[in-house]
Each structure stands twice: as C-alpha cells, then as structure tokens.
Design a protein that fits this description.
The complex is a heterodimer of chains A (about 120) and B (about 110).
Chain A lengths: L3 E4 L2 E4 L5 E7 L6 E7 L5 E8 L5 E2 L8 E7 L2 E6 L8 E8 L6 E3 L3 E5 L1
Parallel strand pairs in A: 2-11
Antiparallel strand pairs in A: 1-3, 3-8, 4-5, 4-9, 5-6, 7-8, 9-10, 9-11
Chain B lengths: L2 E5 L2 E5 L4 E8 L3 E9 L6 E6 L5 E4 L2 E5 L3 E6 L8 E9 L6 E2 L3 E6 L1
Parallel strand pairs in B: 2-11
Antiparallel strand pairs in B: 1-3, 3-8, 4-5, 4-9, 6-7, 7-8, 9-10, 9-11
Classes of the chains: A mainly beta (about 120), B mainly beta (about 110).
Chain lengths: ~120, ~110
C-alpha cells in the first residue's frame, strides 16, 4: 500500500507552547488529507479535512484557531496545536487520499503530551 | 448521519480458533466500507475495501464480506501476530470522509 509518513511520533511540550506535526505522502500525491484525534479505547474522531491549496474544513466542535491546518502541497500537510494545554494531550493521526476513488492511508500517529 | 457499530468490543481466541468480527452500519448511499488493522500506538493499516453487497476479499488468514447492513471480518486459524484492534469505516456517497466504528480488540493466545 501507499506510504504516509507522520512526524514526530512522540512529542512532549510545555503548556502554552505550540507544536507542529507533519504528514507527508511519500509515493503519491494526496489531493485530500485528514486529521484525526484518538482517545484511549475510542474510535478515530475526525478533526478536519484539507484539500491542497484551500482552507481546511473543520468538524463541529473543533477550534480552528487552536488547531491550525496547512496543506500547502500535494504531499505535505501540517497540524499546529497552538497554546497547548494538558487537555490537548492525545494521539493525533493523519491520513491521505489520492482521490475519492482510492483508499485512505494513515500515518503512524503522533503521541502529544502537554505538561 | 452515518453510524458504524462493531462487535464484540473485545475478543480473545486461542491460536487456530477461527472466528468473525461484525460491523453493522447505516449510511446514506454506501460508496465503500473499509477494514483497517491498528496496533497499539500506531496508525491504522489498510486491509480491505468493499463496495457492494455480496463482495468478498481475502488476504492471508482474513476474509471480509459485505451485505446491505453489515460486514464480517472472518479470521481463519489466527496466530498471535493477528492480535490488534480491527477498525471498520464507511464512506457515504455525499462526501469524502470516513465514519469509524470503535473497533474490536482481538487477542490471540499461543
């Protein structure tokens, strides 16, 4: 299957600081990328959908000013958690899709811990 | 609103003991049903896509089937390395996002 690389895999940051997570599609061009959040023993919760070159579409209840998403190229999307707080600690996962007729492939996830 | 319910929540099998995982769904116009495997602390790994009722797909010890209301993931003679959480997701016809179930945590003991 296609490869999606997510970096970093783990990050610890201090409360009030910002953290950037990168998601790259390595062997295909992703017209659409998705960002999810996953709590322990829970399903994946979609945070936002981004299409290359346009603004991300956020799901209801997700603060767009707190979770900044940029999809500047067909192979790279970034999620920046701004002014992080302990309640933002979670497992964040990206996925990428070449188009609607192909499967979505996932990155390996980022464990964020805010202290 | 699309909904996906997976059962059981957890399943413990002995090595070689075959079983099935269930994914019940409601969706407006199914474009696809997806099965993923997720290991602890990792992102989901794609397994199968099913598009229409009656379709079946196989990969090693796994076989996925689809009806108009549910999908089954059959595991034949599982091995300990099949231990993981198996996620089911659906995509409706009107948009490109996936709705996931909570998953079934499978543990295969030697």
């Amino acid at each position: 299957g296609a490869v999606v690389s997510q970096h970093p895999s783990r990050v610890i940051c201090k409360s009030g600081t910002s953290v950037k997570i990168e998601c790259r599609s390595l062997d295909f061009q992703a017209t659409t990328m998705f960002w999810y959040r996953q709590f322990p023993k829970q399903s994946l919760m979609l945070m936002a959908t981004s299409n290359e070159g346009s603004k991300a579409t956020y799901e209801q209840g997700v603060e767009k000013d707190k979770f900044l998403i940029n999809h500047a190229s067909l192979t790279l999307s970034t999620l920046t958690v701004t002014s992080a707080h302990p309640e933002d600690s979670s497992f964040y996962i990206c996925s990428a899709r070449e188009d609607r007729n192909t499967e979505a492939f996932f990155g390996q996830g980022t464990r964020l811990t805010v202290v | 609103e699309d909904q996906v319910t997976q059962s059981p929540e957890a399943l413990r099998l002995q090595e070689g003991e075959s079983s099935s995982l269930n994914c019940s769904y409601t969706v407006s116009g199914l474009r696809g049903l997806f099965w993923y495997r997720q290991d602890p602390g990792k992102g989901p790994e794609f397994l199968f896509t099913l598009y229409s009722a009656g379709e079946e797909k196989e990969k090693e010890r796994l076989k996925a089937t689809l009806t108009k209301k549910e999908s089954f993931l059959h595991i034949t003679a599982p091995k300990p390395e099949d231990s993981a959480t198996y996620l089911c997701a659906v995509e409706g016809s009107g948009y490109s996002t996936l709705t996931f179930g909570k998953g079934t945590m499978l543990l295969v003991s030697p």
